[in-house]
Structures are given as structure tokens and as C-alpha cells.
Amino acid sequence: MEAHKYDRFGYKDFVLDDDFRAWLNGTAPENDHWWEKWLLANPSRHTEIEKARKIVHALDFQGRPVPTYDIEQQWKRLESSMAESGGAKAEEQPRRRISLGWVFRLTAAACVVAGAFFFMNRYLAGRDVPAVVSVPVEHKAANGQQRKLVLPDGTRVMLNAGSAISYPETFAANVRKVTLTGEAFFDVKRNEKAPFVITTGDVVTKVLGTSFNIRAYPENKAVQVAVVEGKVKVNAKIGSVDQNACVFLTKSEMATFQQEAGELIVSTYDEKEQIGWKDGMLYFQKADFKSTLIRLERWYGVQFEVAPGMRLDADWRFSGKFQDKPLDYVLGVMSYPNRFSYKIHNNTVNLH
User: Fold this and answer.
1) Transmembrane stretches, by residue range (predicted)?
2) What pLDDT is stored for residue 221 in this prediction?
3) Using CB atoms within 10 A of its CB, is residue 111 exposed (0-12), middle (13-18) or buried (19+)?
4) Please, what is the end-to-end C-alpha distance for the chain in angstroms?
5) Contact 256/227 with Cβ under 8 angstroms?
6) CB atoms within 10 A of CB 294
7) Is this structure's pTM higher than 0.70?
8) CB of 95 closer than 8 Å to CB of 72
């Protein structure tokens, strides 16, 4: 694509441009990065781009060229409709600083578009995906269980304990959307014409075909995406719709979205800590008492009852690696030397 030709484009030119429409409709995901860089370098074109986006979503091209007068009439109708509904443009929101990992500040800068109305509308709400009559499918892995799944497109998923995934019975032709709560390892079947998109709260992960792990348990107040193979794109919503960030990850890299701090940080990761679970490994690294009990409840399918008078040092932290070990063994290591006593009865563990 010739970058300079777009510098002079108005909204009508964008509407008639095949490459622009292909990118907007998600049929050319290989050009995502190119367009995002161009938008960042050309903020003066955002108004024309937004007009073109609305027109493209309003018109049904059906593979035929659209005369210029149709575009002008369509824009007039859209302006009239927006005016009647209370104003053609929303006030610009003040932008908050987005904190990103220092290693990937330059990469992230190419993704964070000033006034990112276009980016998130396209991926989260504004895309016109052909309607598919489909029954939602949901799978859960209860505490103490793990489940292996094969999705309709051939993608393999392993759900960790206390997790759930939902997706349509039949994926749309141009996008494969799933929703995840908890943790799962994905081995995505490659399909360049239909990106695989996982939503976990305010984080959207997009791939064409690769393997990676997503951890999004509610109590962690963070979403982590760790890449094993391939390339992954992670979008995080920070504040209002105009405040978003994205990063591109490759092998051995991880994105962590801290929900309370509003930060998207990129780093390397410890393979045992992030994906050891799928091979039966329970791994702790300086975990506090509360989070340790939550993980043990989920992993072993038990309920802890802590005696009212039981006290632990507030600075107590637990580290350990356990491969297919019973709960009694793990508790024995945790309690040494005489930190607490425990008694296991069926699915209840009393600590005192």
C-alpha cells in the first residue's frame, strides 16, 4: 500500500478504497499494524476516517462500487440522524496517561491512537459481523477439575479449575469470538481470514493462529496473557472508550493488565508459574496466605475453614513447586515449622 496517497484522502476517498474497507471489515488482518501506524502519524485525518467508518458500516456494498453521490447522501442522512438523537459528536474526553512496560513503550505507542474512537469501536462494538443464528455454548471446569476442549474451528483449549468459556455453536465466517472467565491455555487453529478473539473483562486478545495462556481469575484483579508460540495482540480498555492501549507479544513475552492501576505492562515470564498448571504443576512464588488458600481450594476442590483465633505473620509468604502432590503433602510443607495445624474431612479443611 502507498502511504502517501492516503495523506490527501477525504472521507469519500476512504469509502471507495478497497484496502481501507478490507481492513475496516476485518478481512485483511495482516494490515492491522500498518493502518495503526498510519493513524498515529496522521492525526489530522481522524475526522475523515471516522466519517468513512460510519458510512462503510451503514452501506451494503455487496461487492459493487458505490457512486460518489450515494456517499454524500449517506453522510447527510447520518448527520441528520445524529443531530436528532442529541448531537453529531460527543465531547472529547480528557486523556489519562497510559502506563506501559518500558521494554515495549515504542511498540505500544504505535498502538495507542490519539482519540482511539476508531480502534476500539472496530474491535469491540462497531464492526458489522454477518449475523449467524447460533446457540451459545458454555463449558466449565469446576474446582478440582481441568477440561480439554476442541472448538468448532479445531482450536484446542484446556480449561483450568474454576474457569468457564463460552462461544457460538458456529463461528462467523470472518471472526471467531469467545469469552473466558478464569484461566485457559489456547492452541488456536490458524485462519488468516477469521481472527480468533478472546474477551476477558476489559481485555481483548486477538490472534490468527498461535498458542498462549490467559489468566483472568476475578480475585487477582489482573489479566495476564503469556505467549508460547506465534504473535498475539492484546487490547486493554483503560477508563473511557477513548482511553485504550494495545501491545503485540511474541514467544516468551507476557502482558499484564493491572485493572486498579490502569496499567498494561509487558515482560518476560516464568514458564513454570504461568503454564505449569496444564502439566499438573502447582507453583507458588512468594504468595500470601489468602491467595494461597484460594488457589488450593480451586486446585483440589476443597473448602477451607480458618479458626477465629488463628493468626499468621502478615509478612508470611509461601514459595513451592508441587508436581501431582496430594493436598496433605502441600499443607505439611506450608505449615512447617508449626505455623498452623490442619485437619482434612471430606472436602473441608479446618485450619487452627
Assistant:
1) 102-120
2) 84
3) buried
4) 68
5) no
6) 16
7) no
8) no
